[in-house]
């Protein structure tokens, strides 16, 4: 899978078109992320969809919302970490990514969102070898 | 000096490259032209200014000690020791031997990542804090010995930063639990208790508080947060100096609308300029307004905002203690440390 978003100096295009292109790429990225508990990808489980990606006008900020399969999904933070790890591989380094569960989709929505968007906590979590291994297993290799 | 009446600019003096991962913190040595920076690459870099060329270069790299991210570093008041706090759960103490630095001690005890370390004004105590929600106070004994004097529990979440008051042995901590806590040993017997909590009910922050900084006199404090604001606080510390008991901190004003991403760091200079560094890649500088409103109290104005100061999030801003010039160091996710000079434009 190649990432067409290697567009360091984006040409001015219709915003809708640019948005659609980038969403396609992100959708491709997410095809590769397995739900930790199921053998299907997040997209197949409708945890993620095209609607769940928002770019802002400055085009270096992305908001991703995802819907865990159940309200008390204990893997919500892991899914979020997988999304971050995968996006870090695919996006230009200066992109700022916010990840949230879709409103109303999780019992501990605020708590999960806060953890997923605390940069220091995310970095520390991904430095933890056990968590890192789990995350790596969920992110199917994109070089295949 | 009324800075608001002049045209000021933050000029980039030098970019210090070398770290191979994000730089979390930069700390100026209190007595020499030396800057320490610490990074996600597990190392600490010591940068020195050449007296001839005035340019900064990397004098030494402290490596092979911490096994994970080094999150913050702090010089002792004498400038001879450097404490480094790491996600590996330890705090290392390094001694500057001239040619090199030697790790003379390792403080262990926290259950997980250590986030911050601070020396008190006399250098007799160290404090550390961690994601394990606790704050530890360490006594500096002779012969490179450090002893845990106290374990302070109270925060309900990850503690992001600890800072000793500049003139009194009062300890401040701020946390993912959105509060700032003040710890004091009333009888000066080493028994520290939480004597105040600044939370939303006392005009406090509504999200994670990332940093604290005091003015030189120690009667004002600035805090910054994930809630996108900076808050100014004050206390009648003369009351404490004269032994009349604890003087509580009260909210003075809130600076909002200047950053649109988490504000990770703030630092109050000795000439009363507050710097902020945030996830919007910008540095903000604020000064107290001359128009004193006796009803509403002091207010602060934006002196300038340096957009795109770095390519990525700014994790730390620190004013140099040097009286000669207004130098500011910034550290960023982009792996750079930058040195800035605040100048008046003619």
Automatic annotation (TrEMBL), chain A:
Stored InterPro entries: FSCA_dom_sf, MIP18
Family annotation (SUPFAM superfamilies): Fe-S cluster assembly (FSCA) domain-like (SSF117916)
GO biological process: protein maturation
Region (Disordered) location: 16-39
Protein family per UniProt: Belongs to the MIP18 family.
Descriptive protein name: MIP18 family-like domain-containing protein
Automatic annotation (TrEMBL), chain B:
Presence of the UniProt keyword DNA-binding in the record: no
Entries under InterPro entries matching the protein: CIAO1/Cia1 (IPR028608), WD40/YVTN_repeat-like_dom_sf (IPR015943), WD40_PAC1 (IPR020472), WD40_repeat_CS (IPR019775), WD40_repeat_dom_sf (IPR036322), WD40_rpt (IPR001680)
Ranges: WD repeats: 16-48, 63-95, 107-140, 152-183, 202-233, 307-346
UniProt record, GO biological process: iron-sulfur cluster assembly
Repeat keyword on record: yes
One Gene Ontology cellular component annotation held by this UniProt entry: cytosolic [4Fe-4S] assembly targeting complex
Keywords: Repeat, WD repeat
HAMAP family, A to Z: ciao1
Function: Essential component of the cytosolic iron-sulfur (Fe/S) protein assembly machinery. Required for the maturation of extramitochondrial Fe/S proteins.
PANTHER family linked: CYTOSOLIC IRON-SULFUR PROTEIN ASSEMBLY PROTEIN CIAO1-RELATED, WD40 PROTEIN CIAO1
Record's protein name: Probable cytosolic iron-sulfur protein assembly protein CIAO1 homolog
Organism: Brassica carinata (Ethiopian mustard)
């Amino acid at each position: 899978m190649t990432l067409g978003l290697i567009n360091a100096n984006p040409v001015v295009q219709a915003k809708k078109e640019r948005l659609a292109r980038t969403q396609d790429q992100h959708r491709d990225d997410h095809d590769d992320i397995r739900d930790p508990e199921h053998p299907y990808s997040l997209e197949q489980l409708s945890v993620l969809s095209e609607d769940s990606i928002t770019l802002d006008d400055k085009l270096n900020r992305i908001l991703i919302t995802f819907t865990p399969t159940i309200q008390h999904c204990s893997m919500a933070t892991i899914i979020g970490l997988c999304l971050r790890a995968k996006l870090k591989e695919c996006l230009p380094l200066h992109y700022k990514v916010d990840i949230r569960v879709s409103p109303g989709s999780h019992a501990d929505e605020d708590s999960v969102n806060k953890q997923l968007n605390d940069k220091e906590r995310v970095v520390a979590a991904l430095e933890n070898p056990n968590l890192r291994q789990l995350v790596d297993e969920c992110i199917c290799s994109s070089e295949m | 000096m009324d800075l608001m009446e002049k045209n000021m600019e933050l000029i980039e003096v030098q970019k210090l490259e070398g770290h191979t991962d994000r730089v979390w913190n930069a700390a100026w040595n209190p007595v020499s032209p030396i800057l320490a920076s610490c990074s996600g690459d597990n190392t600490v870099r010591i940068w020195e200014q050449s007296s001839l060329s005035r340019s900064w270069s990397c004098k030494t790299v402290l490596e092979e000690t911490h096994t994970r991210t080094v999150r913050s570093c702090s010089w002792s008041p004498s400038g001879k020791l450097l404490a480094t706090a790491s996600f590996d759960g330890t705090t290392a103490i390094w001694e500057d031997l001239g040619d090199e630095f030697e790790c003379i001690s390792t403080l262990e005890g926290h259950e997980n990542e250590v986030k911050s370390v601070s020396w008190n004004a006399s250098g007799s105590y160290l404090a550390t804090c961690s994601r394990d929600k606790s704050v530890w106070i360490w006594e500096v004994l002779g012969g490179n010995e450090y002893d845990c004097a106290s374990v302070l529990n109270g925060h309900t979440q990850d503690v992001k930063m600890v800072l000793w008051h500049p003139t009194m042995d009062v300890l401040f901590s701020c946390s993912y639990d959105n509060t700032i806590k003040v710890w004091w040993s009333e009888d000066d017997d080493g028994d520290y208790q939480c004597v105040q909590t600044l939370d939303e009910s006392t005009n406090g922050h509504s999200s994670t508080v990332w940093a604290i900084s005091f003015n030189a006199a120690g009667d004002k404090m600035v805090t910054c947060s994930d809630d996108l604001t900076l808050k100014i606080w004050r206390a009648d510390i003369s009351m404490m100096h004269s032994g009349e008991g604890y003087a509580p901190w009260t909210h003075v004003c809130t600076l909002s609308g200047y950053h649109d991403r988490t504000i990770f760091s703030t630092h109050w200079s000795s000439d009363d300029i507050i710097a902020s560094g945030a996830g919007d890649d910008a540095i903000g500088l604020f000064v107290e307004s001359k128009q004193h409103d006796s009803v509403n109290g002091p207010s602060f104005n934006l002196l300038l905002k340096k957009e795109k100061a770095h390519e990525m999030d700014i994790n730390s801003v620190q004013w140099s203690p040097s009286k000669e010039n207004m130098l500011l160091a910034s550290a960023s996710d982009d792996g750079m440390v930058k040195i800035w000079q605040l100048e008046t434009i003619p």
